[in-house]
């Protein structure tokens, strides 16, 4: 049996500008493209109507059809990664498994498990940097400790940036595919078709050039909507950074925030379940379950908050400014643990990313690195006046006849939050 290599797709669902894939195809051996529908992840999803799973499935179909023109296709397996590799090792003579690195604690544990198993079979496991410009300890202080404040991190990031060119790879280096022209269906893995329509992401010059002017106004819909593409790697971060350097520094800073939170998660995995600033664990949260359900359903009586939650529940998206307002409201006005809100967003957001979701929720609650101070409490009415002056966004998601009395009075809630935080941090 001839030796082959495997390229394992994960958060990099594209053929172009894919670092690990490029190395695999230049390795000198034929390459089998692999994707694993990981039951360790899928089994935790409560709703079988999940647009994210559908997005991944459609992206895989797109890759598969493109590869068919090269007499190959993507090999898709459904199960636990270790069990999949156990079978592959039995069936194939594998030299090396190539993939791009992931930085979430669970992914690191998974990859270590796969590495150890392959090593026992004398198979190499090669990982590459792809979903970020700088990883791990690429950007650190002079004493080699990680940055925990964004501004100096961003400054160092920009100073160190060197443009990297990636050549088009020769797709004929893939091994010939003898399977079906149809890939595994959503129904076969226990999910339903949704209204998600996958399109290869594109960079919109006009939108990005005006990004700094209009990004805070939810009714204008002037954010890039590229979060899901970056989450699943259907667009390379290098393409985004290159475009941002040419067209808009504000958007570049947002891309740097993404990497800042990723390196925080990598260096401080405790943030997955705990406050970055440990003294904030002393906060006595009210955690009223009825009020939490009211917030989730968009019935708090604060129009900008309710509009945002209804947009999230209906579409899987929420405008970034509104995400900050709704998160501040939950943690400050209702004094509900930020972890409850983070988990709810994780279950709903199409662009859910552990590092960004965790970092932003801890920012809103005041307990994260470089977070807003605890006494910064958004006034939802003032936020609406400033960013949705004509109530266009509110009317879109919240008909006037559905607006309710506020669940709590703003001034009373603010004073209660300040008192609670102050006592906890004393």
TrEMBL record:
<dbReference type="InterPro" id="IPR006050">
    <property type="entry name" value="DNA_photolyase_N"/>
</dbReference>
<feature type="binding site">
    <location>
        <begin position="351"/>
        <end position="353"/>
    </location>
    <ligand>
        <name>FAD</name>
    </ligand>
</feature>
<dbReference type="GO" id="GO:0006950">
    <property type="term" value="P:response to stress"/>
</dbReference>
<keyword id="KW-0157">Chromophore</keyword>
<dbReference type="GO" id="GO:0009416">
    <property type="term" value="P:response to light stimulus"/>
</dbReference>
<dbReference type="InterPro" id="IPR005101">
    <property type="entry name" value="Cryptochr/Photolyase_FAD-bd"/>
</dbReference>
<dbReference type="InterPro" id="IPR002081">
    <property type="entry name" value="Cryptochrome/DNA_photolyase_1"/>
</dbReference>
<dbReference type="Pfam" id="PF03441">
    <property type="entry name" value="FAD_binding_7"/>
</dbReference>
<feature type="site" description="Electron transfer via tryptophanyl radical">
    <location>
        <position position="285"/>
    </location>
</feature>
<dbReference type="Pfam" id="PF00875">
    <property type="entry name" value="DNA_photolyase"/>
</dbReference>
<feature type="site" description="Electron transfer via tryptophanyl radical">
    <location>
        <position position="361"/>
    </location>
</feature>
<dbReference type="GO" id="GO:0006139">
    <property type="term" value="P:nucleobase-containing compound metabolic process"/>
</dbReference>
<feature type="site" description="Electron transfer via tryptophanyl radical">
    <location>
        <position position="338"/>
    </location>
</feature>
<dbReference type="InterPro" id="IPR018394">
    <property type="entry name" value="DNA_photolyase_1_CS_C"/>
</dbReference>
<keyword id="KW-0274">FAD</keyword>
<keyword id="KW-0285">Flavoprotein</keyword>
<feature type="domain" description="Photolyase/cryptochrome alpha/beta">
    <location>
        <begin position="3"/>
        <end position="133"/>
    </location>
</feature>
<feature type="binding site">
    <location>
        <position position="211"/>
    </location>
    <ligand>
        <name>FAD</name>
    </ligand>
</feature>
<dbReference type="GO" id="GO:0003677">
    <property type="term" value="F:DNA binding"/>
</dbReference>
<protein>
    <submittedName>
        <fullName>Deoxyribodipyrimidine photo-lyase</fullName>
    </submittedName>
</protein>
<dbReference type="InterPro" id="IPR036155">
    <property type="entry name" value="Crypto/Photolyase_N_sf"/>
</dbReference>
<dbReference type="InterPro" id="IPR036134">
    <property type="entry name" value="Crypto/Photolyase_FAD-like_sf"/>
</dbReference>
<dbReference type="GO" id="GO:0003904">
    <property type="term" value="F:deoxyribodipyrimidine photo-lyase activity"/>
</dbReference>
<keyword id="KW-0456">Lyase</keyword>
<feature type="binding site">
    <location>
        <position position="251"/>
    </location>
    <ligand>
        <name>FAD</name>
    </ligand>
</feature>
<dbReference type="GO" id="GO:0071949">
    <property type="term" value="F:FAD binding"/>
</dbReference>
<feature type="binding site">
    <location>
        <begin position="254"/>
        <end position="261"/>
    </location>
    <ligand>
        <name>FAD</name>
    </ligand>
</feature>
<dbReference type="InterPro" id="IPR014729">
    <property type="entry name" value="Rossmann-like_a/b/a_fold"/>
</dbReference>
<comment type="similarity">
    <text>Belongs to the DNA photolyase family.</text>
</comment>
């Amino acid at each position: 049996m001839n030796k082959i290599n495997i390229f394992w797709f994960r958060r990099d669902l594209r053929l172009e500008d894919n670092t690990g894939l490029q190395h695999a195809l230049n390795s000198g051996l034929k390459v089998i493209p692999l994707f694993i529908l990981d039951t360790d992840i899928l089994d935790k999803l409560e709703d079988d109507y999940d647009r994210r799973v559908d997005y991944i499935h459609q992206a895989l179909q797109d890759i598969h059809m493109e590869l068919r023109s090269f007499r190959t296709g993507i090999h898709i397996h459904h199960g636990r990664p270790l069990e999949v590799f156990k079978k592959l090792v039995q069936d194939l003579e594998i030299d090396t498994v190539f993939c791009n690195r992931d930085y979430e604690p669970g992914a690191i544990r998974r990859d270590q498990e796969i590495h150890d198993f392959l090593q026992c079979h004398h198979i190499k496991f090669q990982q590459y940097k792809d979903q970020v410009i700088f990883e791990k300890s690429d950007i650190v202080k002079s004493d080699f400790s990680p940055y925990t404040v964004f501004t100096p991190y961003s400054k160092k990031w920009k100073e160190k940036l060197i443009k990297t060119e990636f050549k088009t790879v020769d797709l004929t280096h893939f091994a010939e595919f003898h399977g079906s022209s149809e890939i595994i269906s959503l129904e076969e893995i226990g999910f339903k078709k949704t209204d998600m329509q996958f399109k290869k992401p594109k960079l919109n010059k006009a939108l990005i050039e005006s990004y700094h002017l209009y990004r805070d106004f939810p009714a204008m819909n002037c954010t890039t909507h590229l979060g899901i593409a970056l989450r699943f790697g259907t667009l390379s971060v290098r393409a985004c950074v290159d475009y941002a350097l040419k067209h808009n520094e504000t958007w570049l800073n947002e891309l740097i925030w993404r990497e800042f939170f990723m390196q925080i998660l990598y260096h401080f995995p405790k943030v997955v379940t705990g406050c970055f600033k440990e003294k904030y664990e002393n906060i006595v949260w009210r955690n009223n379950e009825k009020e939490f359900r009211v917030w989730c359903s968009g019935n708090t009586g604060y129009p900008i908050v309710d509009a945002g939650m209804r947009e999230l529940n209906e579409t899987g998206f929420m405008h970034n400014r509104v995400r900050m307002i709704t998160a501040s409201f939950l943690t400050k006005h209702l004094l509900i643990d930020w972890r409850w809100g983070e988990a709810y967003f994780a279950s709903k957001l199409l662009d859910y990313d552990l590092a960004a979701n965790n970092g932003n929720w801890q920012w809103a609650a005041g307990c994260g690195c470089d977070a807003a101070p605890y006494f910064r409490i958004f006034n939802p009415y003032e936020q609406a006046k400033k960013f949705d002056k004509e109530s266009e966004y509110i009317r879109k998601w919240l008909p006037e006849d559905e607006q309710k009395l506020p669940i709590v009075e703003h001034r009373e809630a603010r004073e209660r939050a300040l008192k609670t935080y102050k006592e906890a941090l004393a």
